[in-house]
Amino acid sequence: MSSPCDPEHAPVGDVGTALMMIDSRLKTIHAGKTEVDPEQQEMVRQFAASLGPRGADDLLNGACTLIYMFMSWLRKAHEDHGKDVIEYVVPTLVATMRMMPKSIPSEAIPTMAGLVIAAGTGLSPNLWRQQYGDWTEAEMNPLEATAFLLAEHINRITDDPDFATRMVAETLAGADEAAGVTDTYDEYDED
User: N or C terminus of the chain: which is more exposed, having fewer CB within 10 Å?
Assistant: First the structure.
């Protein structure tokens, strides 16, 4: 029986921009910076303000698509070792989120855990979330942090600091190629 939360019913959104934001955060952390550069933060704020409602929705859906892609990869990796992705990923993710009270208010953690569980069970995170009403402003940073933490988890598992970003970029490039789109995501294929 089909669920209204099946990924086939979900908008993909602006995965490229969402990936660029996550990649930027990953590079900042791997460069040893603990504070976000105020100039970078202002650029992101201005960029978000320039998106408008449609662009913001596309970016939000793109972040949810990243979460789905990351959890799909993690599910397959865990199943290959006879493990349950929910059992091994969600507790660590929640524990990490609880250590980030400035970025992730405690009331947002159950929603982010729900998104990850939905994705881990093959459901669309954005359609799962949509059941409970509109996104709130307080969920924006936690959503970005969730995608970031999943990407970082994949990078640690693979012992490759660019694996998650490269995996998505290659998938996007393959999808574009199959669709006959000539614009590529070469900036992520440097390694």
Answer: N
Q: How confident is the model at residue 144 (pLDDT cuts 50, 70, 90)?
A: very high
> Is residue 99 exposed (0-12), middle (13-18) or buried (19+ Cβ within 10 Å)?
exposed
Q: How far is CA 152 from CA 27, 49, 67, 145, 148, in A?
A: 11, 27, 12, 10, 6
22, 148 in Cβ contact below 8 A?
yes
Between CA 72 and CA 120 the distance in angstroms is: 6
In a domain, 150, yes or no: yes
Q: Tell me what pLDDT residue 109 has.
A: 96
pLDDT at residue 44, rounded to an integer: 66
Give the closest residue to 150 by CA, choosing from 63, 44, 20: 63
Residue 84 token pair: 């349950």
**Does the residue 5 lie in any domain?**
no
Rounded CA-CA distance 185/23 in Å is: 13
Residue 102, both tokens? 């400035």
- How far is residue 24's CA from residue 29's CA, in Å, rounded to a whole number? 9
User: pLDDT class for 179, splitting at 50, 70, 90?
Assistant: low
Single out the residue of 4, 119, 139 nearest to residue 60, CA to CA.
139
Quote the domain boundaries for residue 177. Answer: 12-188
Q: How many domains does the chain have?
A: 1
Residue 3 lies in a domain: no
